[in-house]
Amino acid sequence: MIVVDEEHENSYKQQNPDPRYNARDIAIVLATIHKCKIILGSATPSVESYYNADSGKYHLVELGERYGKVELPKIQIVDIKDGYRRKIMKSHFHPVLYQAIEEALNNNEQVVLFQNRRGYAPYLECKDCGWVPQCDNCNVSMTYHKYGNQLVCHYCTDKKHIYYRCESCGSTNLTTKGLGTEQIVDEVYELFPTARVTRLDQDSAGSRKRFEKIIKDFENHNTDIIVGTQMVTKGLDFENLTLVGILNADNMLNFPDFRAFERSFQLLSQVSGRAGRRQKQGKVIVQTYTTNHLILKQVLENDFDGMFRSQLPERKAFKYPPYWNFIIIRLRNKDKQKLYKTANLLAENLRKDLYQRVLGPEEPLVNMVKRYFLLNIHIRFEKKISSIKIKKLIIDNLQQIAENKELASTKYEIDVDPL
Ligand SMILES: [Zn+2]
Ligand SMILES: [Zn+2]
User: Fold this and answer.
1) How far lies 30's CA from each of 1, 3, 34, 242, 391, in Å?
2) Using one digit for the tens of pLDDT, what is the confidence trace for 312-322?
3) Which ligand has its closest atom nearest to the C-alpha of 168?
4) What is the CATH number of domain 67-119+178-314?
5) What ligand is nearest to the CA atom of residue 368?
6) Architecture of the domain made up of 324-416
7) Ligand lying closest to the C-alpha of residue 163
């Protein structure tokens, strides 16, 4: 028997290098080859897997109660728009969250604070002219890291010294925008001077060893508060953790991706599940500007089924999985003109057979990385069309381009079922 636990996890998908496979899906193929049983486990299944269970392709087994009969945590949604308007916020903390942290610390309990952004602030901005430092290699603003005092590009890892003067107008009136884990740590030190705080993100826990040390220190209660990115959601169980605070749910919900709502539900539910263990019901406080968001209501009511059913019509209408197969062809070239020429030709040729199933080429949100210009072609096709046929068509067309001397410099990658 094969067991794939936390089957919804993104980390099952290999992004780079080739092959871009999803280990969960490969496990299903493997089980089919060996005619063995397979179990996909998750408290927050992927829409694709749950759809297979819902439509009878998979058999569904539900666990009606939590392990050890622990009560679900009490979730509270807090309106930070109102908090800022009434000027009652303490830095980025609503009084409700602030008081809950204070109470937990007084009871000698532990706290996890979640913010899905590393660094100090997503970017630096000139207050006088709006100038924002950009990466020289990528078309993206650089993230301000106070630790090490530098600007870092999260796409190519290029670093720059911090600017003290605006490069555009010379003003020294620079400010940070947005909120990252480093800044939250600073604020916690200021608001709770006696608390022992640690940070858990890619920068502080890049290696296995450092990750384990941070976890161990928390387990042994050498630290009181962890401030972390989604690294804190990964199945960690702490006996003494009673409070989870989510600093800002909106940047997840507003992420421009068809899976943003599903992911937000999974992430918020998973991080909430960390709070409260055997002896005590945990508490989760979610700070947001949009208190009436449907996904937040579903997280509040632990309503996975509701989330699933509310997502399906949109997936169907906009031709996304689980109803349609989805392939992205990502093209890149340092020569923008050549890139456009290749991409347009490829899309045109594919359209001869696939018609409106081919979308683009279009520029991704970040349209230049490591000095390569980027274009994507999307192919979405009905489940009843043979994937083998589509595969052959794509390969034949790419072959044609490879044989064209002028266009051959364009590099490509093919991502089937992209995340
Ligand atoms: Zn300026
Ligand atoms: Zn860069």
Assistant:
1) 11, 12, 6, 40, 21
2) 999 999 999 99
3) 1
4) 3.40.50.300
5) 2
6) 2-Layer Sandwich (3.30)
7) 1
